[in-house]
Amino acid sequence: MTGTKMRPIGATIPLDEARAIIERTILPLARAERVPLFDANGRVLAQDIVSTGNVPPFSRAGMDGYAVRSADTTGASKDTPRTLRCLEQVFTGQMPTQTVTNGTCSEIATGAPMPAGADAVVMVEDTLRDASGVVTVYAAVAPKQNVGLEGADIRAGQTVLRAGDVLNASRVGAIAALGIDAVEVYARPRVAILSTGNEIVEPGQPLAPGQIYDINKFTLAAVFAEHGAVPVLYRTAVDTLEDLSRAVDECLREDVLVFSGGSSVGERDLILDVIAARGRVLFHGIALKPGKPTAFGVIDGKPVFGMPGYPTSCLTNGYILVVPALRTMARLSPQILRRVTLPLGQRIVSAPGRRQIYTVRIAGGQALPAFKASGDITSMSQADGYIDIPAETDVLEAGTSVEVTLF
C-alpha cells in the first residue's frame, strides 16, 4: 500500500448523538404547491379545508321505499295497515314535483331528494302497491327515519380538515364531497442521490475489470420514495475534487443531498473535503456496525449525508438516519415501527464496543441471522428485519428473546 494516504476516522459518536444532531438541523419544508385532488393522496395539507355548503346539500332517502308523513303511519302493522295514495316516482338526480300531504306518499329511490311535506321513508319491503297506485303500509316510521338530512355530514362553515393533516382515501373523499378539485399541499423534499467512485457502473452497462454495478442509488431511491420524498438520481461522480464539486453544484438544486461512497478513510474518499470546503461537517463516524463511516453536514443550508459505499451499510443508515429526517421535512409523523419478540435461532457474536444493527430473517417462529457482510446486499434482501445489539453486548446465545424491528 505504498503511497496510500489513509485518513482514519476520528472519534466516533454514538448513534443517538448522531440522530440528535440531524434532528436539530432538519426543518420542515415551508414550500407549498397546488395539486389535483386525484394526486393528493398521501400529501400533507398546507391549507385548512372549510366547507362553503352543506353535505348532503339536500335531505335524501336512506333507502328505496316511499316518502311519507310519519304521522300517517302511526300504528301501522301487519294487522292494522295504513293506505296512502302515491303521487309520483322520485329518482336520484331529479327533484320532486309534488308535495306530500295527508294520506299521500311518493315512491323514492335511495339517495333521491325528499319531497316537500315528507319527513320519513317507509322501506319498500314494508309496503304493497296495487295497480291503481294505492300503497298499503305495514310498518310505522318515526320522523326522520330512513332519511339523510341536509348537512348531516358536513355543515356550511365547518372546518373539515386542517393544515398539517395527511390526506388518505377518506379525507380525499371528504374534500371531493365539497366540490373541491385541487388543494394546497406542502412540497415533498427533493433528494439528490449521487453515487461516487471510479468503480461504479450503471446497471445495463458492461463491467470492466475492477468495476461493480451501482446498488445504492436504487435502494435509497426506493426507500426515500416510500417516506414522502422525491428521489432525484444524478450521474455517478468520479473520485476527483473537480468532479465532486461539479456534482455538488448540480445537486444543490434539490432540498437534500445524499452521497454514497467517499465517506470512508481512503485517499480518494473526498466527500468530506467537499463538504468542509463548501459548508460544515457536523459529524463523521458513528459507533455503529454496519455504517461507521457515515458523515453529515450542511452546504448552503441544505443537509448533506455522506453514506458508506457498502450496500448494507448504506441502506441500513438510509432507514435509521435519513428516513426520519425526510419525514420531518415532509411534515409526516414519525414512522411507526412494527416489532415482534422472538427467540434467537442461532448464537450471534457482535462487534465488541460498537452498537450493531444485525439483520435477521424469521422462520419457524425464530429469528435467524441474515447478516453476511456490509458489502453484501443479500444481508438486507433476505432479511425480514433487524435486532439492535447494544455496544456492551458481545454475544447473544441461541434461545435468547430478541426484539425484531420489521422492515
Short summary of the structure?
Helix content is 18%, strand content 29%. It has 407 residues and is an alpha+beta fold.
Descriptive report:
- The chain has 407 residues and is α+β, with helices and mostly antiparallel strands.
- The chain contains seven helices and 28 strands.
- The protein has helices spanning 15-25, 169-177, 216-225, 241-251, 271-278, 311-329, 378-381; strands at 32-36, 49-50, 60-61, 65-68, 82-90, 104-108, 120-123, 127-129, 134-137, 147-148, 159-161, 182-186, 190-195, 200-201, 212-213, 230-233, 256-260, 280-284, 288-289, 295-299, 302-307, 339-343, 348-349, 355-363, 366-369, 385-389, 395-396, 401-406.
- The chain is elongated and about 95 Å long.
- The relative contact order is 0.13.
- Mean pLDDT is 92; it is low at 1-6.
What key phrases describe this protein's structure?
7 helices; six-stranded mixed β-sheet; about 20% helix; disordered N terminus; about 30% strand; about 400 residues; alpha+beta; single chain; 28 strands
Helical element count?
7
- Summarize the biggest pleated sheet: 6 strands, mixed
Mean pLDDT: 92
Beta-strand segment tally: 28
SS content category: alpha+beta
Q: What are the low-pLDDT stretches, counting only 5+ consecutive residues below 50?
A: 1-6
Distance between the termini: 40 Å
Strand content: 25-35%
Helix content: 10-25%
Strands of the largest sheet, in order across it? Answer: 7-4-6-5-9-8
Shape: elongated
Q: Roughly how many Å is the radius of gyration?
A: 32 Å
